[in-house]
Amino acid sequence: MGESRTSFSSTGPAIPAGRHGRYVARVGFEISRIDDPALEVRERELAVSAFHVLLEFDCPGREARGTVVLPPPLSGVVSRIMRETVLALLPRYRVLVPDWINPRFIPLREGSFGLDANIAAIIGALRAAGPGAGLVALCQSGAPSLAAAAVMAAQGDPAAPAALALLGSPIDPRANPTSLSRHLAGSRPYHLQSLAITPVRHGYPGVGRLVYSADTQESVHATARFRRAFMPGWLSWTPFPDMGEIDRQVPLSDLCSIMVDVDARHFLENIDAVFRRRALVTGGLIHDGITVDPGAIRDCALLTVEGMEDRIIAPGQTAAAHALCPRLPPERHLALRIEGCNHLALFGGEAFQTGVAPAIIAWLDRWLG
Q1: With CB atoms counted within 10 Å of each terminal CB, which end of the chain scores lower, N or C?
Q2: Is the model's pLDDT at 208 over the cut of 60?
Q3: CA triplet 293, 328, 177: central angle to 5 degrees?
Q4: Beta strand pairing call for 42-48 and 38-40
């Protein structure tokens, strides 16, 4: 996509005026209709927990071809970044979204939320969807989604997904390392704990909860941009990773509007399991006391979509999922690389509309129903 400047459109993750992600528990999707075809959209809350609300989007005026579960990434941004993906799927599918709650609004008494709980929430959403559903995961949500599919397959769960699409997800960060994946793989827990984790301040229901806060994220991005602009030689030895197109193409004001806190436990466990230990690849990921084995997946159709210009999760990191699922027959494997597509274009914009979304829909149409 070159160095064109990216802004978040009204169909993408733009935040309503006065509702920056960090200052509200949930921003919401605000989808009441789709235009092609012209249909009303019904939004319902199917389940509510301390950490997320399971939303259902459906169009009463058409018969859905199936149900798709769409877990947003827990990476410090609002769930609304998946809005354009929801809109792309709605003409054909009922869509379920676990809408994560900003941790600064979750009281300490509710406990912490780690990677294990992330996997469990995706499993719960698939069970709410019912047998034969699709699962579409972007970036951070890819590893727990693959884990959820593996756990359900191993248990013979009838609600295991019939199709799984992974978009720009770090399944094996060493397959084609980026500055970000190298930085996170080399990080030490005590450094992350001391540099990135702070308690929620007074004035919020989650006071005292340990988080990787939106305020800390803003400081990291602002400092990295300053050093890149004025002291580029320092980046090789500073604690700020190269965030690729995010810091090069997204205005800081836009980025800050979509930031939310991340529960410290999830932040640290995700980095440790995905980037430091590569737990899905090495067999070291444990869920509910049981080793997660993607090799247990036999019936799910696996699609991976990677952007050729993705400097955050480079091509190869997501496609590594195919080697972890050797029991799937060849026709249930498809690895796509989209030309002119960076990480941001995997969930919005022209490359998403013309390349990514049609590929996902074609795969789901083939295997659902």
Answers
A1: C
A2: yes
A3: 60
A4: unpaired
Is 334:349 a contact under the CB 8 Å cutoff? no
Query: How far from chain centre, in Å, is Cα 69?
Result: 12
Q: What is the CATH number of the domain that holds 73?
A: 3.40.50.1820
Non-local CB neighbours of 12 within 8 Å, separated by 6+ positions: 81, 83, 84, 347, 348, 349
Of 33-37, 319-323, 339-343, give the lowest mean pLDDT range. Answer: 33-37
CA distance 45 to 247: 35
Residues 260-275 as b/e (b if ≥16 CB within 10 A, e otherwise) read bbbbbbbbbbbbbbbb
Residue 297 tokens read as: 């997946």
Average pLDDT over residues 131-148: 98
Burial class (CB in 10 A: 0-12, 13-18, 19+), 3: exposed
Chain mean pLDDT for the chain: 88
Q: Which pair of structure tokens corresponds to residue 91?
A: 């003409």
Residue 2 forms part of a structural domain: no
146 HSE (CA, 13 A, CB side): 33
For the chain, report the end-to-end CA distance as a whole number of angstroms: 35
CA nearest neighbour of 228 among 215, 216, 246, 240: 240
Report how many domains make up the chain: 1
